[in-house]
From TrEMBL:
InterPro entries linked to this entry: Glyas_Bleomycin-R_OHBP_Dase, Glyas_Fos-R_dOase_dom, GlyoxalaseI/FosfomycinResist, VOC_core
Residue stretches making up the VOC domain: 10-128
Name under which the protein is recorded: VOC domain-containing protein
Species of provenance: Streptomyces javensis
Lineage: Bacteria, Bacillati, Actinomycetota, Actinomycetes, Kitasatosporales
SUPFAM superfamilies: Glyoxalase/Bleomycin resistance protein/Dihydroxybiphenyl dioxygenase
Coiled-coil annotated spans: none
Highest taxon of the lineage: Bacteria
């Protein structure tokens, strides 16, 4: 009897341990607009979803983070938006709530706003453009440009670089920096 090869249908959820779960809960519900679908205060866990009728939880927040603030644990957690206008709206909301931004970029196939939650976890809200672009593709954009002009510029960039991918030097430098250990001495030892 042959067993079919198993396959993953999609990513279901991500769980984050938190230093201050109430602060994280406020951020993810009030700023990102996720819905709490369940919680157990005795266990210190909260389940959140952007689509509670379809997916019980896409994010789990749990007490008990013991890694110091500033330790690199998560590269990013990304939230897909249905419309470009949603990404624009989140950008405005992040500015209103003094959310620390990382970068605002075109990936050719998506437009993303990268930001940090209250505990420094790097996150992204993004919208899929429908264009095909080899990854990595990272081009900084001015999200306050007229939306039609911005999409025309992204389309033109994808026509130029979509087959090969594109990364700005500043992103390549940032990526190299992120891969280095936090301790400069340890970083020197690794390079030698």
């Amino acid at each position: 009897m042959t067993t079919p090869t198993p396959s993953v249908a999609e990513l279901g959820h991500v769980g984050l341990r938190c230093h201050d779960v109430s602060k994280q809960l406020a951020f993810y519900t009030e700023v990102l607009g996720l819905t709490v679908t369940d919680h157990d205060e005795r266990l210190g866990i909260w389940f959140l979803s952007a689509r509670p009728d379809t997916e019980h939880h896409e994010l789990l927040l749990a007490e008990g983070r013991d890694a110091p603030v500033g330790i690199k644990l998560i590269q990013q957690v990304s939230f897909r938006c249905a419309r470009f206008e949603d990404v624009l709206g989140f950008h405005r909301r992040f500015r209103e709530h003094d959310v620390r931004l990382d970068m605002i970029v075109s990936h050719g196939n998506a437009v993303g706003v990268y930001f940090y939650d209250p505990e420094g976890n790097r996150c992204e809200v993004y919208w899929q453009t429908g264009f095909v672009a080899r990854q990595p593709f990272v081009e900084h954009i001015d999200i306050e440009t007229d939306p039609e002009e911005l999409l025309d510029a992204i389309r033109a960039s994808v026509e130029r670089h979509g087959a090969t991918g594109f990364t700005e030097e500043s992103y390549r430098a940032w990526t190299r920096e992120q891969a280095m250990p936090a301790d400069g001495a340890a970083a020197k030892e690794v390079r030698q």
